Amino acid sequence: MVRFLTRRVLVGVVTLIAISIIVFGLFFAVPSSPAKVMCGKNCDAASIAQVETRLGLREPIVTQYTKFMKGIFVGRTYADGTAFERRCDAPCLGYSFRNDEAVTTILSRTVPVTISIVIGAAILWLLIGVSLGMVSALRRGTLFDKLAIGISLTGASMQVFFFGLILLFLLVYTTGLLPFPSYTPFTENPAKWAQGLILPWVTLGFLNSAIYARLSRAQMLETLSEDFVRTARAKGLPLRRVYTKHALRAAITPIVTIAGLDIGASLGGTFITETIFGLRGLGKETVEAVGFLNLPIVVATVLLAAVFIVVANLIVDVLYAVIDPRVRLS
């Protein structure tokens, strides 16, 4: 078990290093003048030279990357030899001169919003979707199964911007049952935090639960037809034990894989959901940074999204070891 986890952690670290090299190279090595991109069309030669000096773009690309990685662990100082000087404390992911603040400061405001949205929605779509799909498979052909299929088809056919606007119209503007979505830090007021995120949770949770319901149903039906399930039944084991201990554990493995990827990708940014409900999270911040050509923020968010994916896959590997004994023995 320890060897298995150690291998996965090492693979994750190597993957992140490779991604950081590729991302850094794409944004700072490929463009002919990253400073001109960040400075804008109306910048003169003196302004571009100043930006290049402040960002260290006149140094070799290897030196730039080394300083970038070093800044993550010990921080760094941006200066151009004049009175200008900005300190970026560790973990330093760059400095946004357009916003005049460290990228980590910007991320500290936006990442908690996105994490709050995704974690709450993920709990809903996993509980509702997987439960609905499993029960539907066990009651195949019944009225419950047909209703579950109909609901999942309806949810899978909708888009976030459409369903979210409907919920806003019905629950906020028409009936006033819920306040307009907002973000309050969990540590300040947990009740207000949850109340302000109910609509984003329900929107993402319902739409994704529809997909997981269909996936869980198909996987459970396939597992129920396997030889080991028929053997367990033939031995006279109670159906509840056959379904929960044998069939469910085998059917849920691929669902865990997809859930890990979905959650990791969603943590990288839920731009549409944040825009609909007026929440300034990582997705909205990233899209605006792309529009303003704010490369330090774009680089940092791409790397952060990669970290979310790698960590999610690591958690999935750990869950594999818990669910499937064969993984612990491999």
Structure description:
The chain is mainly alpha-helical and 330 residues long. The protein folds into 2 domains: 2-103, no CATH class; 107-329, MetI-like (MetI-like fold), CATH 1.10.3720. The chain has 15 helices and 4 strands. A two-stranded antiparallel ribbon has the order 1-2. The chain has a two-stranded antiparallel sheet with strand order 3-4. Helix 1 packs antiparallel against helix 14, helix 5 (103-138) runs antiparallel to helix 6 and helix 7 packs across helix 9. The longest helix is centred in the middle third of the chain and has 36 residues, at 103-138. The chain is globular, with a radius of gyration of 24 Å. The chain starts with a helix and ends with a helix.
Topology of this structure?
Layout: H1 2-28, H2 34-39, H3 45-55, H4 61-74, E1 76-79, E2 85-88, E3 95-96, E4 101-102, H5 103-138, H6 143-157, H7 160-174, H8 190-196, H9 198-224, H10 227-234, H11 239-267, H12 271-276, H13 282-291, H14 295-323, H15 325-329
Antiparallel strand pairs: 1-2, 3-4
Helix pairs in contact: 1-14, 5-6, 5-9, 5-11, 5-14, 6-9, 7-9, 9-11, 10-11, 11-14, 13-14
Gist of the model:
The chain has 15 helices and four strands. The protein is mainly alpha-helical. The protein folds into two domains: 2-103, no CATH class; 107-329, MetI-like (MetI-like fold, Orthogonal Bundle).
CATH topology of the largest domain: MetI-like fold
For the sheet with most strands, the description reads: 2 strands, antiparallel
CATH class of the largest domain: Mainly Alpha
Q: How would you classify the quaternary structure?
A: single chain
Number of distinct beta strands = 4
Strand percentage lies at: under 5%
Determine the CATH superfamily of the largest domain.
Answer: MetI-like
Structural class estimated from helices and strands:
mainly alpha
> What average pLDDT do the residues reach?
84
Number of helices: 15
Rounded to the nearest angstrom, the radius of gyration is 24 Å
Low-confidence stretches: none
Question: Termini separation (Å)?
Answer: 9 Å
Elements, N to C (H/E): HHHHEEEEHHHHHHHHHHH
The domain tally reads 2
Q: Which architecture of the largest domain per CATH? A: Orthogonal Bundle
Shape type: globular
Q: How helical, in percent, are the residues?
A: over 70%
> Which strand order spans the largest sheet, edge to edge or round the barrel?
1-2
Family: Belongs to the binding-protein-dependent transport system permease family.
Subcellular location: Cell membrane
InterPro entries: BPD_transp_1_N, MetI-like, MetI-like_sf
Keywords: Cell membrane, Membrane, Transmembrane, Transmembrane helix, Transport
